[in-house]
Design brief:
Radius of gyration: 25 Å
Structural class: alpha+beta
Number of helices: 8
Shape: elongated
Helix content: 10-25%
Strand content: 15-25%
Distance between the termini: 88 Å
Strand order of the largest sheet: 11-12-13-14
Largest sheet: 4 strands, antiparallel
Length: 259
């Protein structure tokens, strides 16, 4: 039997054009509607050749082997985030990624006096893989959950993807970090310890904080008690009060008594 039109032109005799937006799914762009749809009959809605993610996985990477899997991916709900035909947004997303993520994740976690640069830019995927990952929280590289751990660079892989990996190596510093008392590198003092070194997340929030420098207001303590952290930034340093301890101040230009 001879068709009156070829490829998608035949489908568009009845169906609306599905390739009008900036980003178009490759089979749609090539006019190959039958890559996903059976033109006559199928057991799935919209005459799809497969159900849910099973259809997508005929062409796209399978993320189910990862230790941690994004909930909609695990449920096979690719269309929770992506359009099937065309989209105004990159990767056929239904919305801009900064809007899409907060449609499920709590928006107040991303607002504060200080906001992590990728969060402020709406670039959630700078740190997270949106499908699956071998690392907790769908992180792109290693970032242990423990607040205290022995220092080694591999424990800071995620942070050192952007931040200077030399920041906590030397006790003396002049320009590598602003967190210093005179020339004493306070990142090294806090982080570079053989036993109880601080993880970055011990003091800093990964997304946003009501305090300067992404400093957290509190961290897990003993039992139900959370340890409060109060940080005051100055033009050349700052003061930190942690839990029941006395204030500790530092100054880059005029060295304070910091023990």
């Amino acid at each position: 039997m001879t068709l009156i039109e070829k490829d998608a032109k035949l489908c568009y005799l009845c169906h609306e054009n599905k390739a009008t937006k900036k980003h178009v799914h490759s089979p749609v762009a090539s006019g190959d509607c039958t890559a996903c749809h059976d033109p006559h009959h199928a057991p799935n809605r919209s005459q799809l050749k497969g159900a849910g993610s099973a259809l997508c996985l005929q062409c796209h990477e399978d993320f189910s082997k990862n230790k941690f899997i994004h909930a909609p991916v695990e449920a096979g709900m690719c269309l929770d985030c992506h359009e099937a035909h065309d989209s105004s947004h990159h990767k056929l997303l239904k919305k801009d990624i900064s809007v899409l993520c907060v449609s499920c994740h709590p928006k107040d976690h991303f607002n504060g006096k200080s906001i992590h640069a990728p969060v402020a830019a709406g670039d959630c995927v700078a740190c997270h893989n949106p499908h699956g990952s071998p690392y907790r929280k769908l992180l792109r590289s290693n970032s242990p959950a423990e607040l205290y751990l022995p220092y080694k660079k591999s424990n800071f892989d995620l942070c050192f993807g952007c931040h200077n990996p030399e920041i906590a190596l030397d006790l003396r510093a002049d320009s590598i970090t602003n967190f210093r008392n005179g020339y004493k590198n306070l990142h090294t003092v806090h982080v570079n310890r053989p036993v109880k070194g601080r993880n970055c997340k011990t003091c800093h929030d990964e997304h946003a904080s009501p305090q300067e420098m992404l400093i957290k207001e509190k961290i897990p303590g003993f039992g139900k008690w959370e340890i409060p952290i109060s940080y005051t930034k100055t033009a050349t340093g700052g003061t930190c009060v942690v839990g029941c301890h006395k204030p500790r101040s530092y100054d880059r230009l005029n060295e304070e008594t910091y023990k």
